[in-house]
Input
Amino acid sequence: MKKTVFVGAFAASALVAGLAQAQSTLEQVKNRGELVCGSNTGQAGFGAPDANGVWQGFDVGFCRALAAAVLGDPMAVTFVPLTSQTRFSALASSEVDVLARNTTWTFVRDVDLNLTFVGTNYYDGQGFMVTRELGVSSALELDGATVCIETGTTTELNLADYFRVNGMSYEPVPVDTAAEAQQQYLAGACDVYTTDVSALASSRAAFAEPGDHVILPEVVSKEPLGPVVRHGDDNWADIVQWTLFALIAAEELGITSANIEELKTSSNNPEIGRILGTDGGFGEMLGLDNDWAARAIAAVGNYGELFANTIGDQTPIGLARGLNAQWTQGGLLYAPPFR
Amino acid sequence: MSDTHAQTVSYVRQTMLAPQEPPRNQTGAVKWVHENLFSGWLNTGLTVISLLVIFWLLSGISPWLLNSVWRAGSLSECRAILDGTSGACFAVIVDRWHQLLFGFYPPELYWRPVLALVLLFVALAPVLFTAIPRKMLAFSALYPFIGYHLIWGGSIWFPITVLLGFGVGAVAYLLVKKINNLAAIFAAILAPVLWWLFVAGPLESSLHSIMPLGLDFVRSDRIGGFLISMIVGVSAISLSLPLGILLALGRQSDMVFIKTVCVVFIEFIRGVPLITLLLFASLLLNFFLPPGTSFDLILRVIIMLTFFASAYMAEVIRGGLAALPKGQYEAADALGLDYWKAQRLIIMPQALKISIPGIVNTFIGMFKDTTLLVFIAILEPLALANAIRADTNWNGIYWELFIFIGALFFIFCFGMSRYSMYLERKLKTDHR
Output
């Protein structure tokens, strides 16, 4: 178990070293036969392994769609659970091909950390949760509060900004994971628990007495969460980006995992034809085959189906579409045209 | 006797008094309690305070533990059964114990890690207890290959061809030894490396195509839970002891180059936090390796933990060496023993005996340090606790998982510490 693995892996790495110089991410993924996707260490609804070790969730579904588009098999994904501190290093060091893990798109991350944010798959915002007995109805009444906050996240910085702008003071209680934050909050170590509203809602759903806790009306930040790739491989960034757009456009155009085969033959809408690969040869421009988007949609459904199956209001997480509705429905989802 | 004092003493008793029971407060539990708990005002006060604290702790925890729910499908079911009363929800352990033990190892193959664990104890027995026949050591030497094959599976020819490498090394040593001793040592190192690099791979695939034997392959990322703590802990522990001995000897060596290398290695590893080394293994190493290389993460971690433990081990053993009187070294020289024989027969048996508490201390620390793997995306028990909590059924559960994981670790660490005490008693030859 010890020397054998060492020698085997060493020999293998020496051999592979010669072959693998200067491969693009797409080639690496194809050669490996598998997509490596950086995922959450476990957030209900967004990404976590189920009882059988199969990863499930909203972000996980995006990786499965991407694997279906590139490799033809939605299950050909290895998920690497990453904490908020290690996620960017893991991406930069090529440990993962793509990061789909509730990551907020910010200037510094995009520009200074040499990452490429390809789009937004969930529009979130930071909120505050307090116990009902605290008697607070607005975040502006939180002066002097102790606040449980996850380290290494944008919420930490937003919190400081919000309290400074409003001339209030607070005492941070740093925590590492959502589970720890819930425990600290329930034990009374902090008055306020702050994180993205979606996570607050799923935390509150897990409490013994959800009615004893209120999520304050203020949303103090913009948190566009989306998949991230490394700088410098634009072709790979295009593939990830347009896979996301294909899922969003599919909902807008009414393509679902159920009617996709039927639409391939019967639809006379040219844009549907271009997405499904019966027209235009768009897949080949990406370096894939023309069925790529059809496979992605068939694997996890369109954006709306994926949302409804993992975090929608019929699930225990119970999130409303809100900002994440199509632009035609008053939301922010707006896929560029497939043309 | 009666004659001697017949004139001076008026009465001498001729029979012995029957032995009496000692006074009630000088025996048994009463005496023990009196001496140990209530021997003075101060101690009585401390005893009472301690009892109150213990009572307070138990009255807080035991209702929660005794009122626990063992059968439920989710946390909300648990809460419904408890109906507002406080109680533990150990149903999560019943539901997910297999994941905490094996990670995502395929359930139909659980017999393989279990068999590997049983065989591990068989392989350890002759190492730990001298009463077991010495021939069993051959099995211990083969165990790493058997254990690897059972846990990971794949073609059976892989461990066999790798094992043959050691045979090739031995043959090369014996052949070249006739010409030159030093060259023989180099040959013994070089031949297996060449074998593994160039012969083992093709030989394995051709043997496999002729006779495809083996178990189903299980990928490293399916392995998790306590299984991974055991794999990493046992490998790092068993590798760090020999490496630590070599480093300790190297540090005391007269050869400048060897001494410098050992000192730099030990001081560097000891000066760096373990978590840094683990992050280096998981994140930074990829910058130095050629792109596209996949170098099994478990293997990287085993190497890092081994380095870490061996640096500490080297210092523990150096302490043992320093405690030996100089006369022992001189006696070895006087007997005409060469360096290795002196170490093997005289110095090491004594130095290691002195170092036993320190060595086992390092082992236990090492085993517990495997929980740090949670930070580098390895599914060890704490990481699985996170994953279990992310399931909507069990979101919000906390202490129950930690209690279970803590109990598992306690069993193994306590076992190690009891064994070390047994060993100390057995090897005790002085009369202090």
